[in-house]
């Protein structure tokens, strides 16, 4: 048998290695149009920031090591130009020699990856404007920074890579600005969790411009002028484009292979394309999301590696193993904070999938509060009102975020419910968690909502509160005086039973406290004393304050 893999890195390289482990006698050729075969592309920003100091630590395998260990013929700087599924041949161009030739195959694997978006803006090809996708890009950026002695950086796009680049360039001592066309950073997140990270970014001293679009770039002496739609300009020594990526499907032109609804390579559950002898993995494919059943792309190394393993198994042993899709579990370090997500954001459940759901947000400690060093995190979950199925989860915090998102991701992936969160058995000792972990607490709160023990409203629903309603702050008088929501009255929770008569039984009552717990207790007291219409603010005053301040800050930045 002769297996050919087009494209290396995560998906292609993992497929090739697994093919050899399953079939010692096959001929395996892997083509890579770049110089490097297998490298840690997720580590590239940290190499630029000198967190990873040795370049060779990014290189996982080389063409020579693949040949030596796996007996795989790896041809770098060699690009596949055309596929002919009928003849089962590919046309190959060696970029070093200029030689073009044909190769035949029995089974073919496509792993062309994704390509960065470069909008057709005036001046976008000027010197000093970069994208970051591979080791060569990293080398060019690092050399430019050193030679230019760059002091000002502008990052365009506030996705995962954009934020990682912002942090690492900032840590090099640069003045950093981030420009984002949307109203928040990190599009997979809902606004409240994004707002928490945005405040931290601003606190660190990075200029964050939301709702801002770039219209052009101009050379100005020895620097770059970034022109904004608002009419403002930013000066930069270096610009990093982190606008996003799209599946690289150029190779499929005139191949007859099917492109899916999400503009990626269509594959079935066995990672087989529309041609049974051609499989595909990695960033370029699309697959039905396990939650929404809608076609989607996944630009993550973890799923690509797992796809490679499954793909090789199906090629050698027949279509035995199904790929069940990715729920896009992702995590990013944002200066001192960690932000993570799994499943589908509430906004996308609403606008893209039309899936009914409930959102709940709770605070929690990274470990027991009485043990030194505990840090607060916020967990937001989205779940079905019908059966409690967990549909999405997001976590923002300083410690222990990775542990919680992995638990939540596992529940989502296995179509578990909020009841599973309540019963999840975690490893507990004071340095690591609490007896009731924040994951358990998010389940407890969701259970209460589903069982109508807790009725909630959200930070952006204050317009529904009329002048005839009561907004009740149940925090202490000291907390209330330090800052409160406009038009609220203050009755501390510990005095509520004695002062209930001050509240009109016939009015709607909206309770809140700092984080949600005392408001919940107030609601239980009131509802069991014939106050029928009582709702509690999900996430409490601290989440409302974060979100409203961020909205005001973003709007002020646009107006300026």
Describe this structure in words.
The protein is 29% helix and 27% strand. By secondary structure, it is α/β, with parallel strands linked by helices. Strands 5-2-1-9-21 form a five-stranded parallel β-sheet. It is globular and about 90 Å long.
Q: Which band does the percent of strand residues land in?
A: 25-35%
Cα shape: globular
Count, helices: 15
Mean pLDDT: 95
Largest sheet: 5 strands, parallel
Oligomer: single chain
What strand line-up does the widest sheet have? 5-2-1-9-21
Total E-strand runs: 33
Which structural class best describes the helix and strand composition?
A: alpha/beta
Using only CA atoms, what is the Rg?
27 Å
Portion in helices: 25-40%
State the end-to-end CA separation: 65 Å
Poorly predicted spans? none
Blueprint (SSEs and pairs):
Layout: E1 2-6, H1 9-22, E2 27-32, E3 38-39, H2 44-48, E4 59-61, H3 63-70, E5 73-76, E6 78-84, E7 89-94, E8 100-104, E9 107-110, E10 114-116, E11 129-131, H4 135-148, E12 152-156, H5 160-171, E13 175-179, H6 191-204, E14 207-209, E15 214-220, E16 223-228, E17 233-236, E18 238-241, E19 245-247, E20 265-266, E21 278-280, E22 285-288, E23 295-297, H7 301-317, E24 330-334, E25 337-343, H8 346-351, E26 358-365, E27 376-383, E28 390-397, H9 401-413, H10 418-423, H11 438-450, E29 456-457, E30 470-473, H12 477-482, E31 489-490, H13 496-499, E32 509-512, H14 517-527, E33 534-537, H15 540-559
Parallel strand pairs: 1-2, 1-9, 2-5, 9-21, 11-18, 12-13, 12-18, 13-14, 20-22, 29-33, 30-31, 30-32, 32-33
Antiparallel strand pairs: 3-4, 6-7, 7-8, 10-19, 15-16, 16-17, 22-23, 24-25, 25-28, 26-27, 27-28
Helix pairs in contact: 1-7, 6-15
